[in-house]
Amino acid sequence: MKKWFKISCVSLLTAILIIALAACNNEEVQTIRVAEVTHSIFYAPQYVAIEKGFFEEEGLNIELTLTPGGDKVMTALLSDGADIGLVGSETSIYVAAQGASDQVINFAQLTQTDGTFLVSREKVDNFSWDQLKGVTFLGQRKGGMPQMVGEFVLKKHDIDPHADLELIQNIDFANISSAFASGTGDFVQLFEPQASVFEQEGRGYIVASFGEESGHVPYTSYMAKQSYIEENKELVEKFTRAIYKAQKWVEENSPQEVAEVIQPHFADTDLDIIEMVVERYKGQDSFAVDPVLDEDEWNNLQNIMDEAGELPERIDYSSLVNTDIAESVME
């Protein structure tokens, strides 16, 4: 009798386990198409969320597509070619100013400073910003956040970017580093890891950080059309929760550990370079520690755009920023 009872209990527990596993396997994995404006170590928390399985824990499959240029990310979103865009928040302002009927809403912030560095062709001891006067400066594409932050910082140091130096802005983003390597410019504004790679190779020397100089801004955020958020609120919450888990993980772990986790996304970059870049970005608080985009950051963004002459009109914070989702996943 006891033997029969034991067998029955084991059989019952096995059946329950099989049913539970079947139910889990039958849960629909939902796919979200994400268009990222560039593929960069600057977005480390996103790749941590992928590699640590945080999206998978939320029942999400992420289709990540490189979509170079903020205008192209916006086109993908507006044409339903992507569900979520990872791009500079200034792009949502441009779209709103054009009278879009379905606004693009910022719902989660990933980076909170500029991610570029000032690189000198020659080694400079005791760098000061006034040393840029009279030089040839290879800047970023006009109208983008790197260029606007670059000009903002130059003006902050009493340098007129259009009068006190020779400013080059007609080179595509993808070709800026190769242009500098081939001899164009005395100084260049570069993202990582290219800045550190040049320094390691002796092609250039990092002398200043635009992120440290410009303060906190919603430099890169996740955004989606208002209609998509309204129709897929639970999905967007799951996505944001996975990002928040990754943000906390990056904050709590060492640059070496972060580098090891995200290395599969940067197979052509040495691990020590990835670690160096992560350490530099962590050191200047570039990675947002939570997904909430606050109003002070939004206002700083518009001040920078205005200073660069690129702000079409001031857009109210509440019109293009939704913090409800981010705040709910943090509770």
Features:
331 residues, alpha/beta, D-Maltodextrin-Binding Protein, domain 2, five-stranded mixed beta sheet, 16 helices, 16% strand, globular, disordered N terminus
Structural class category: alpha/beta
Oligomeric state as shown: single chain
Arithmetic mean pLDDT: 91
What is the chain-wise order of helices and strands? HEHHEHEHEEEHEHEHEHEHHHHHHH
Overall 3D form? globular
What's the domain count? 2
Query: Could you say what the CATH architecture of the largest domain is?
Result: 3-Layer(aba) Sandwich
Major pleated sheet = 5 strands, mixed
Annotated CATH homologous superfamily of the largest domain: Periplasmic binding protein-like II
Organism: Robertmurraya siralis
Family: Belongs to the bacterial solute-binding protein SsuA/TauA family.
Main location: periplasm
Keywords: Signal
Briefly characterize the structure.
The protein has 331 residues and is an alpha/beta fold. The chain has 16 helices and ten strands.
List the helices and strands and how they pair.
Blueprint: H1 2-26, E1 30-36, H2 44-51, H3 54-57, E2 60-66, H4 70-78, E3 84-87, H5 90-97, E4 104-111, E5 116-120, E6 136-138, H6 145-156, E7 166-168, H7 176-181, E8 187-191, H8 194-201, E9 205-209, H9 210-214, E10 220-225, H10 226-231, H11 233-252, H12 255-262, H13 271-283, H14 295-307, H15 317-320, H16 324-330
Parallel strand pairs: 1-2, 1-3, 6-7, 6-8
Antiparallel strand pairs: 3-10, 4-10, 5-8, 5-9
Helix pairs in contact: 2-11, 2-12, 11-16, 12-13
